[in-house]
Amino acid sequence: MKAFLIALQFLSRIHLASQEVWTDEDFGRSVLFFPLVGLVIGLLLSALYGALSFILDPFGRAVLVVAFWFYLTGGLHADGYMDTADGLFSGRSRERMLEILKDSRVGSGGVMAFVFLVLLKVTFLSQLEPKAAMLSLVAVPAAVRFGTLISIFQFPYARKEGLGKAFVTYAPPHTTAKALVLALLPVFLCGPFYLAFLGAAMILSLWANLGISRKLGGVTGDTYGAVIEGSEMVLLLLVVIGSKAVHFLL
């Protein structure tokens, strides 16, 4: 239970535990519950979308839900997304890129990347029918946060020390297999099509981390967040494409 509360507090603004200082061992054990935290986030987003359907049009709902999405995650992943954009698009050496990622200041590349991230998330979500939107909002966060385990366990950490090292060092045995069980829970809410989300999230994580690792020599906590945000955006796009294709065929 403690490990889940740590994961919930780390990945969202939902703080159910009074403790504010965690050890590396605590963080390592919490990684198992990342997909479950994603499911909690998704349920809250879907509930908000459903509630707003009585008072707002699809675009208005999408704007408020995406805004709540960023608020609920505390901007943690968005910050990593902006830092990663600043570093990778800087055209500098590997060492300088890592320095830019560590810099708390946001450059023009990060700002532009974030603006388009928000615009695209809102655009894609507003294109979906209400039922598809609510199911996607449940499925996407859970699937993508399982994809984070691929970032953590399948790619080397680019720094000598950091949070990623704690995840790898202190994670429970067979973490990925156990987390997969938790990542499958949305099947009971979304149906078998959720498996497509999960598979796509894993492929996106592998593809993105391969590209990042080539440039940085590994991954970092910032790139974890970047892959989460980018994967969420792409999965929403894939749902839009799938929905349009179904309507065209029918």
From TrEMBL:
Subcellular location: Cell membrane
Record InterPro entries: CobS
GO terms assigned for molecular function: adenosylcobinamide-GDP ribazoletransferase activity
Top EC class for this record: transferase
Keyword Magnesium applies: yes
Sequence intervals crossing the membrane: 32-52, 59-78, 106-125, 132-157, 177-207
Keywords attached to this entry: Cell membrane, Cobalamin biosynthesis, Magnesium, Membrane, Transferase, Transmembrane, Transmembrane helix
Pfam families for the chain: CobS
Keyword flag Magnesium: yes
Entry superkingdom: Bacteria
Cofactors named for this entry: Mg(2+)
Catalytic activity, EC: 2.7.8.26
Main localization, broad class: membrane
Membrane-topology annotation of the record: Multi-pass membrane protein
HAMAP family xref list: CobS
Role according to the record: Joins adenosylcobinamide-GDP and alpha-ribazole to generate adenosylcobalamin (Ado-cobalamin). Also synthesizes adenosylcobalamin 5'-phosphate from adenosylcobinamide-GDP and alpha-ribazole 5'-phosphate.
Family: Belongs to the CobS family.
Name of this protein: Adenosylcobinamide-GDP ribazoletransferase
Originating species: Megasphaera massiliensis
Name of the gene this protein is made from: cobS
